[in-house]
Amino acid sequence: MILFPAIDLKDGQCVRLKLGDMNQATVFNASPVAQALAFAEQGFRYIHVVDLNGAFAGASVNGAAVEAIVRAVQVPVQLGGGIRTLADIETWLDKGVARVILGTAAVRDPPLVRDAARRFPGRVAVGIDARGGRVAVEGWAETSELDAVELARRFEGAGVAAIVYTDIDRDGILTGINWEATLDLARAVSIPVIASGGLASMDDVRMLTRPEMQILEGAISGRALYDGRIDSREALALLGGAAKGAAKR
Is residue 129 annotated as part of the catalytic site, yes or no? Predict the structure, then answer.
């Protein structure tokens, strides 16, 4: 079970949004590199990075910050936000990102996802961000009529490494992960699922140790790590997730 600390990038800074609203951003660290190094030193074995500006723009905006993070840490980094073309995917993988996450592209261009997953085994994930069970795209600015489980099933057998499932209605407000919807999705597909959106406390971390949760690859935590609601050392010990010096791809 992997606990992924989140670094969300807006205007070159490490922030957390409330309900996916770019106008409700709290800056937690002006230096994304310092934040990444802190997470690596705490023992996290994977870092989750999102280019928030890029998600809205449809292209990399915080690329310099992402590159600096990848150069600075020796743990793998997965990246989402604004990755919409095969060239984007190749560029980031060549720059040392361990895994790219395709969200809007998964809805708009499924063949791209399948092609990329085939070309880069184990290095392409799908991000499914849902509001009321319906998939949101373009940095969560638009909600489609597509059901989250329906979208996930489109990539069965395609070689997708993981699905990052975010319940937007819980993101950044510390109300706890939508366990029911997350587990329903995980049971509906054979692709590993990573829970995101709302991990709020050590009680949530303890939830991840329950037998029924072992179907998940892990969970992403943001605001609760930054404000101390989750103790990183205790959480990693509970999940068996501390791995100092973990090798980068």
Answer: yes
